[in-house]
Amino acid sequence: MESSTSKFVRFPLLVGDTDTTNYTACTIPWRFPADDPTVPTPTELSWINLLFSALIRYRKRAESDTSVPDAANKAEIFAQRYAKILEDLKKDPASHGNPLNILLLCRLREQVLKELGFRDIFKKVKEEENAKAISLFENVVRLNDAIEDEGKRLENLVRGIFAGNVFDLGSPQVIIFVDNSGADIILGILPFARELLRRGSQVVLAANDLPSINDVTYSELIEIISKLKDEEGRILGVSTSNLLIANSGNDLPVIDLTRVSQEIASHASDADLVILEGMGRGIETNLYAQFKCDSMKIAMVKHPEVAEFLGSRMYDCLIKYNEV
Q1: What is the CA radius of gyration of the chain?
Q2: pLDDT digit string (tens) for 132-145?
Q3: Can you give the residue range of the structural domain that contains 232?
Q4: Which parts pass through the membrane (predicted)?
């Protein structure tokens, strides 16, 4: 299953004019020039082991994928193949490509799944979580709308996407790289986007092209929005005429902003604020990314390795706001 995005481009709002100037996608340095290239570093081993620990969960999801014939057997093959890759990397960090980082580990995992015919092993759980969240959406929005104090209302909305802070939301156009299905997108991001629309902003929601874990995809987000809109194209009284759903071109839970779709790049020319939401996009990659406009990274810390790097605790919330 190939990406519907035929050509990748550099996100135009990144500072610098080339793929390498002032931008490194991966936040956490896994090795340094003085490290022996044939020996994995402690940080590399830690992340390899993290991917190992998730294998059982992935195998079980793959086993239950009814769209794939002989799913149980193929799920076991997937687990064995990916475990072999991880073992290879422990012996030789360059055995499956350079540089060894979270982008490569996720890419290799998705590659093995797709080779065995698995396209979206989290599809069922995403559908279940989306249905639950849609049933709660109106109540969440009504509660937010009932907060008369603007600052408190904005704080409550931001808390809904895993952080608590108040900031200026008066930007004419906003691009939000979104994260998970279910409560994250429906009860977190969409009430937040609705408030921006109510204020007269244009909002672009950028979602993955292809499935990866439980991240919401472009096609899934279009379907979610259609279920929330009324016959006049409003979401609980707010027009969606300034809401755009865009395909980011991405197919991983992390993102390299030198490889995005031409579609999302075209929306960047008028953007005044870029938001990267979720640990994969906003911390593990792009925490230090610099943009030509105001930017914000907002996420919850959910990996011990990330907490250790940040000097934080598990489930701490992070907001990093950069004003140009």
Answers
A1: 20
A2: 999 999 999 999 99
A3: 123-322
A4: none
E strands in 117-262: 173-177, 202-207, 234-235, 238-239, 243-247, 260-261
**DSSP classification of residue 189:** I
Q: What is the pTM of this model?
A: 0.90
d(CA 167, CA 132): 30
Dihedral-angle region of residue 162 (phi above 0 means left; psi in -120 to 50 means alpha; beta otherwise): left
Among the three residues 115, 145, 176, which one is the final residue of a domain in this structure?
115
Beta bridge partners of 204: 175, 244
Final residue in a domain of this structure, among 82, 115, 148: 115
The DSSP H or E segment spanning 128 is helix 123-145
What does the pLDDT look like over 32-80, one tens digit per residue? Answer: 999 999 999 999 999 999 999 999 999 999 999 999 999 999 999 999 9
Tell me how far apart the alpha carbons of residues 271 and 163 are, in angstroms, rounded to a whole number. Answer: 23
